[in-house]
Amino acid sequence: MKTTLTGLIAAPFTALREDGSLHVAMIGRQAQALAANGVTGAFVCGTTGEGLSLTTAERRQVAEEWLATAPRALRVIVHVGHPSVAESRQLAAHAAQIGAYAFAALAPTFFRAADLEQLVDCCAQVASGAPALPFFYYHLPAITGANFSMYDFLERAAERIPNLAGIKFTHEDLMDYRRCVAYAGGRFNILFGRDEMLLAALALGGTGAVGSTYNYLAPVFHQILAAVEAGDFATARQYQSQAIEIIALMIQRGGLPAGKAMMKLVGLDCGPVRAPLRNLSPETWAQLTHELEAVGFPACVQADAPTVFPKKAG
What we know:
By secondary structure, the protein is of the alpha/beta class. The chain is built from 12 helices and 8 strands. The protein has 2 domains: 7-215, Alpha-Beta Barrel (TIM Barrel), CATH 3.20.20.70; 231-314, no CATH class.
C-alpha cells in the first residue's frame, strides 16, 4: 500500500497535568505548532508519547484529540502497539474509525518474537485490524529486542500483509536501511527514526523521518533538508552537528524526560513523565538549560534569530 509520507514527522509528547492525568487541551496547541514549523505529520502514542504507559482508554482519547485538532495538512499516524495483539487490533480499528492517515506497531516487548516468521505473523494479525489503512512496522530493536533484518522482513511481509506501507526504521544499521529504501524499486515508505543521523539517511536516499526532536528542533532540521536539496553538504553537516550537540545534552540529562522538559523552552509545557520514567530535578533542569543555551538552543529555533552553530561544529 503506497503512501507519500515525506519530510519531518514529529513523535509528539503526551501532555500530562501535574497529577499525571491527560492534558488533552495541549494537543491542539502542539498540532498547530508542528504545522507552523513545516512538520508534515504526527506519530502519536509512540515511544516519545509514552504510549505503553497510557491506558487503552487514554490512548484512544489522545488519538481522537489529535484527529479532531490537527490541521488537514498534518497527517496523523497512530501507534497501536501493545503486549496484547488483540488489544492492538482494537486500537488499529479505532484509528481507522477516527480517520487516521496510517497506523503502526512495535514488536511485542514481553513475550518476544523468537524469529522473523513469528514477527511477521504478529504484524499480520495487528495489521488486519484496519485492512484499509496503511500499516507501518515500528522497528526499534534497542527496546523490543526484535533485531531482525528489515530487508528480510519486507521480503516475507510484502505479500502476507496487504496494507503494509513501510517501516519506521529506528536503528543504526544503515546498510539494512538502504536496502529497505531500495527494495522493489522503492515500493515501501521507509521512515528514518534516528534524528542524530538524519543526514546519513538522506545521503542514502531517505525522504521521510520520524523523531522526537522535530517537536522543538524542526527549523534546524529543515536547514539540513534544504542544504541537501541544494547539494551543499558542508552546510548540512554544520546543522546536523548543531542538532547532535543538543541531542547529546538531552540524552546526558535523562533522555525522554529531558526532551519533554525542553518543550517548555519553546513555549509548550507538556508536563511530567509517567513512572517508571523520572522527572528532572530542579538542579538538573537548571544545568540543562544552561548547557543548551551554550550550544545555541532555543535561540536556533526562534523565528528571527541568526544562525548559531555550537563550538564543536565544523
